[in-house]
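I hope you will forgive my troubling you with a question about protein structure. I am sending you one protein, given as its amino acid sequence and as whole-number tokens for its backbone shapes. Thank you for your consideration; the sequence and its tokens are set out here:
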Amino acid sequence: MNILEVNHVSKSYAQHQALSDVSINIPKQTIFGLLGPNGAGKTTLIRIITQIIEADQGEVFINGEKLNPRHIGVIGYLPEERGLYKKMKVGEQLLYLAQLKDLSKAEAKARIKIWFKKLDIEGWWNKNIEDLSKGMQQKVQFVATVIHEPALLILDEPFSGFDPINANLIKDEILELREKGSTIIFSTHRMESVEELCDHLALIHKSKKILDGATKDIKNAYKANTFNVEHTGDLTLQHPLFEQLQKQHLEDHTYRSVIKILSTDSPNRLLQELIGLTEVHSFQEKIPSINEIFISKVQEEK
């Protein structure tokens, strides 16, 4: 079942078309990557889902119900532009924001203490926001986003400002939130994070959706029948069914070749050919990365 359905949504500002007939479905308890170059329309779509702005056309449904003000309570939104009150203390601010989400003061305080322990910030209660680094402020804002245990989390560049250790800490918490039942929309430019975290993704470019589906299915669809082969000694293929695209000397007598099968033959045929010519150390199909697919699709649309 889908937690979120966006049906034929369009939005324009004066002469600028921000979204054009965009439809996406987000299954429950998944991490959904919302991708696109700067200015593609991602932020506009997020603002429509969070009811900051309204669509000109189309409809949005949460749990099968048309989007309405009651849904604000089931959404947690971490915007790319951070929004903490710099003069307030960390604990005071989180208590205030949690109570805006209808938590009692006692429940809010209990949950905040749990998150402080999770994120290793137990001594921060009386720190001023303005005295914290960008990464430290990001931890506080993350807690503010998840404190009311929303069913739908929208995270816009959640790793911005984090060092690798804290980025991994937040990544683990995101995965745990999914395991506990949350659905996460993850908007980012960091393709390695998409590869690692996202079950499904959509790519928006120039206001239109140009790619959508399960991450694994998308990667399989863009396979090019190409294989990475590490082998002993130099190798030159003469067989008309195989094309040697690249050849690289690694060390000593070891080489890496990139070989494409030009027919519908199985990889076994290529492997048999190679075994007759060289000693094969590894044989692996070349699966395109999400970054390679992203660049390819955006360039196609130019």
Q: What stands out?
A: The first strand starts at residue 2 and ends at 13.
